[in-house]
Structure formats: C-alpha cells, structure tokens
Amino acid sequence: MNAPSKPVLLTGASGALGRHLTQSLGALGWALRLTDIAPFPDVLPPSARFVQADLNDGVALLRQAEGCGAILHFGGVSVERPFEEILGPNLRGLYHVYEAARREGARVIFASSNHTIGFHERPRGNDAKLDADCAFRPDGYYGISKVYGEMMGRMYWDKHGVENINLRIGSCQPKPLDRRMLSTWLSYPDLTRLIECCVLAEKVGHAVIWGQSNNPTGYWGEDHRARIGWVPQDNAEVWRAELESFISDPVSERYQGGAYAAIEYSRSAPSPRDHFAPE
Ligand code: 15L
After folding, report:
1. Mean pLDDT of 76-98
2. Which end of the chain has fewer CB atoms surrounding its CB within 10 Å, N or C?
3. 98 given a catalytic annotation
C-alpha cells in the first residue's frame, strides 16, 4: 500500500494501541504526528514526532493537526471510569479533535468501541449477528462517551462534510485472553491493515466498521468495510481449546460487553434469559 500524501496525527500515542500503530505505520514510512498526555515510552520511528499534550487543550490540538490529512483518534480514557474522569478527555477532547479536523479538512478515524452496544445479549444458536445500524446499548459511561463520539462524527459529516470512520473495536490484544475474546478479538496486524485502509480509501463519508478479526463466532455482521476494502485476515480459533472453559459471572456472560456490563450492575441476576423483557 501507499503512504498518505499528508502527515497523519495520532492521539493516544502512548497507549497500547497507539504504541503499536506508531511502530507499524512508522515502519511503512508514514509521516506521523504523535500526541498523548503521557510521555511516549518507546524509541520514535524516524518519520514520527511527538508532542505531549492534554486533549482538553483545544489550541494544542489545532496546532498538532496543522497540515494533517487524517486524525487517528485513539486518545482519551479507554476503560470504564467514573463520569467525571471521562468528561474532559472523551467528550471535550472529541470536540477539539473534530474542530481541528474541520479546520484542516482532515478525515477522522475514531477508536470507538464494542461498549457502545455492550448491553446487547451475546448471540446464541441461530441468533442474527448485530449490524452496524443496530440500536446503541452502551454498558457504562465509557461506552456512552463512544456513542457521543460516533454521533459527533455523524453531525460533522452532515453539517460540515468532515469524513469519519468509527471503528467499534472489540478486544484488540496481542492474543485473546478469555472465552469472550474468541468472538471479539482484533489482532494487531488486522488493526494496522484496517487503519491503512481507513486513511487511504478515496471516499468514506460517515462510516461504522466493526473492529473484529475474522472470528467464526464473532457477534457482529454488516458494516461499511466495503467502502475501504478492509478484509481481516486473522481469527481467534487457534486459542479455543485454551480459553473455552473460561466462564465468568452471569451478567458478563450474558452481554456482549462482558465484564463492563457487570461493573456496578444493580439489577437482580439475569436468569432465565428473558428475565428483562420487555425492552
Ligand atoms: C475496550 O473498549 C477497551 O478499551 C479495552 O480495554 C477492552 O476492554 C475492550 O474494549 C474489550 O471489550 O475487550
């Protein structure tokens, strides 16, 4: 694949996925502008430069985005936390990212999450997979912040023509860690290929793509990947024997968001399956 014609800004560069993308995209020779509230812990690729900054600082973000053709927004709080901790980085920060993209005419690739839909039940037997236009069912404040991010993208495309791709990432880890991840896993190489396709695709509009590898027991179906030509190549099945017996608590087991759904869950235990009907 080619390198993009303009530099690419990556927020959250010091996080696990940011560090991986810095190395893998840097190895492709991409001109990278990196930022994070935490110092960058690795050796920088020759084509990358790093500026430490807070997503709450809109002016800093405008400066970092100058001349960039795409913003990979992986910054912000990446796990379930109290609302007050999420508010600044994930909500205000997202606004700063979109304002910078609007000014530069840049495309936003947003690290959304499966926790936007985490309270959908896991499919069983012949149950249909979820399509990208399914109802949002966030499983916490973190998931709500990702719904907000996707809606920000919807509005900036409709109102300002800022293109954006919202990646509902499942579990992006070097390898799956529990039984749920046999369905939700996204490999690091599939993530890199996904980002290449997102940045290099000609036209994307407002798109939503499930960030999962080619897992046979995946929960998710139709999305907009045809617009960018991404085909995931890895799958989690090789770890099945190792992970199949890993059963968690009933709430985590019932919902797609797993353990996130169970955090501070205060309804009575979910059994039998239709206990919660009607919706
Ligand atoms: C996410 O959105 C988190 O950022 C990550 O830490 C994992 O918990 C992942 O979802 C998951 O659902 O496995």
Report:
1. 98
2. C
3. no
Q: According to DSSP H, which parts of 161-269 are helical?
A: 181-184, 188-200, 240-243, 250-254, 259-262
Please tell me the predicted confidence (pLDDT) of residue 278: 46
In this prediction, residue 271 carries a pLDDT of: 56
The torsion angle over the Cα atoms of residues 175, 179, 181 and 183, rounded to 10 degrees, is 130
Segment 243-260 mean pLDDT = 95
Distance CA 4, CA 69 (A): 8
How does residue 270 score in pLDDT terms, banded at 50, 70 and 90? low
Show me where the domains of the chain are located.
8-274
Structure tokens at 68: 């960039």
Indicate the fold that domain 8-274 takes in CATH.
Rossmann fold (3.40.50)
Q: How far is the CA of 79 from the centre of ligand 1 (A)?
A: 7
Distance (angstroms) between ligand 1 centre and the Cα of 275 equals: 27
Rounded-to-integer distance, Cα 43 and Cα 33, Å: 14
pTM: 0.96
List 98, 141, 142, 156, catalytic entry: 142
Q: Which residues contact 43 (CB under 8 A, 6 or more apart)?
A: none
Q: CB under 6 Å to ligand 1: residues? A: 78-79, 113-115, 169, 171, 184
Ligand 1 center to 59 CA (angstroms): 29
